[in-house]
Amino acid sequence: MEAAVNRNHFAIASISCWIWIVVVCASANKLQANELQTSDRVQFDAPALAAAHVVKPEVAQEYLATGRCVRIKLPVSVFQRSNLADGQLQYIVIRVVSPYHTMRVVDFSPRTQTYTTVEGHVAVRTSLEDKNQLGAKAAFPPTSAGQLSVDASNQQAIRQEESFNRLPETKLLSSSGTLMRGSGAFFKFLAGPHAVLEGSREVAILAEVSPAWRGDLLHVSVQALGTSAGQHASPVQLGYEQMWTAVHLAGDVHAASAARRYVSTERSLRQLAGEQHKRVVEKALPTVFHKLGAALDIVEPKVSGDYLVEVLFSGRNKFRDHPEMNRLPMDLQVAIQDYWQMRSEFMTLAQPPRAPAAAARNTSRDISAL
User: Fold this and answer.
1) Cβ-proximal residues to 180 (8 Å cutoff; 6+ apart), any chain
2) Residue 180's pLDDT band (boundaries 50, 70, 90)?
3) Distances from the Cα of 270 to the Cαs of 67, 308, 330, 344, 366, in angstroms?
4) For the chain, how many helices (H) and strands (E)?
5) How many CA atoms lie within 13 A of 292 on its CB side?
6) In the chain, which residues fall in CATH 2.60.40.680?
7) Using CA atoms, how far apart are residues 224 and 92, in angstroms rounded to an integer?
8) Does the bond joining 110 to the residue before it have cis omega, within 30 degrees of 0?
9) Mean of pLDDT over the chain
10) 170, 115 contact by CB (below 8 A)
11) What's the average model confidence in pLDDT over 144-172?
12) Contact indicator for 110, 174 with CB cutoff of 8 Å
């Protein structure tokens, strides 16, 4: 009897050991795959705060439909963590978007730029020669009178030359344009002749806003793309980052204070999420069977791995009354709700609430005018 019990304990221990081995191996393979997919060999940074300066009416007159124009400058930094021996950085793309469509981009800088490795013009010379030749020769066997030979030929040559200067071939150095029907702008920077993309680049937008506009949130995303090393090079993402930039009207003390409060609230949420990461992982996969299922892509974690990205960058608060929210630590739940409350309050600077009665009167006036 005791021997049978020992055998059962041994079998259970063996099964548990094999389960842990499978979990560790699968987790290691999944972690390695995730590292390859979300490589951050190139990192980025952008300011958390930015001031919007009102453009003079005489300058902004050609852009305005209604409201006023503001100019916003954003220095974006690119940091290459390694020498990218396993790949080559080709270009970076910066996107600056007003996700709530409270700003309309009417101009941007820098504009599309090209370059060439040739200085001056290219001299081109062409030569054309047309040559015709006709000849005939006949020989007869020798006779008593000797040998008879006939030779006739006609040759004509025409030579024509022309030369001109041609502009050298140009290549793209940077390009830019608008996004989302004018709610944003993109800036694409290529390596160019010197193959240097690291450092700081300043991008700027000229945007039309409402007369009551005092502040806004700009979604800034930066992406580094290149090719992998090896005989068969393929496109690969070398880095990606998305950030919020709180913009306030220059000279507006209350708007600047609200922007700083938003930045402080977001920073506190990020810090707390980093401190609570281990507890969140434990609640997402509470048992060994959950860990095994997640490692084998059979079971979904009870808390998504990118929950913080969804909290920060989704268009609405998806975690309000959401089952996933209840699995987070209580202090983290409170921080998320505080963040969304602060974000909603700050966005009132871009979209001031209108009185319902005034809105109704405006609507009836518009309908009667039809």
Assistant:
1) 97, 101
2) very high
3) 36, 8, 15, 18, 46
4) 9, 13
5) 11
6) 37-115+172-251
7) 4
8) yes
9) 74
10) yes
11) 60
12) yes
236-263: per-residue pLDDT in tens? 888 999 999 999 999 999 999 999 999 9
3-state secondary structure 70-92: EEEEEEEEEEECCCCCCEEEEEE
> Which of 245, 268, 280, 275 has its CA nearest to residue 336?
268
DSSP character string of 169-200: P-EEEEEEEEEGGGTEEEEEEE-TTTT---EE
Give me the percent of the chain exceeding a pLDDT of 90: 35
As beta bridge partners, residue 3 has none
Burial class (CB in 10 A: 0-12, 13-18, 19+), 88: middle
| pLDDT band, residue 34 (cuts 50/70/90) | very low
Higher pLDDT, 32 or 73: 73
pLDDT value, residue 264: 97
Residue 177 neighbours by CB under 8 Å, 6+ apart: 108, 185, 186
Alpha helices in the chain (DSSP H): 2-37, 57-60, 253-275, 277-284, 288-295, 307-313, 323-326, 330-347, 356-368
CATH class (in words) of the domain with range 37-115+172-251: mainly beta
d(CA 178, CA 298) in angstroms, rounded, equals 42
Could you give the CA distance from residue 192 to residue 90 in angstroms, rounded to a whole number? 9
Q: Are 226 and 238 in contact (CB under 8 A)?
A: yes
Question: pTM of this prediction?
Answer: 0.70
% of the chain at pLDDT higher than 70: 55
| Burial class of residue 307 in the structure, from the number of CB atoms within 10 Å of its CB (0-12 exposed, 13-18 middle, 19+ buried) | buried
Confidence of residue 362 (pLDDT cuts 50, 70, 90): very low
Nearest residue to 183 via CA among 73, 97, 63 = 97
The pLDDT tens digits of the residues spanning 258-285 come to 999 999 999 999 999 889 888 777 665 5
Query: Can you tell me the distance from the alpha carbon of 124 to that of 166, in angstroms, rounded to the nearest whole number?
Result: 7
List CB contacts of 237: < 8 A, sequence separation 6 or more.
39, 223, 224, 225
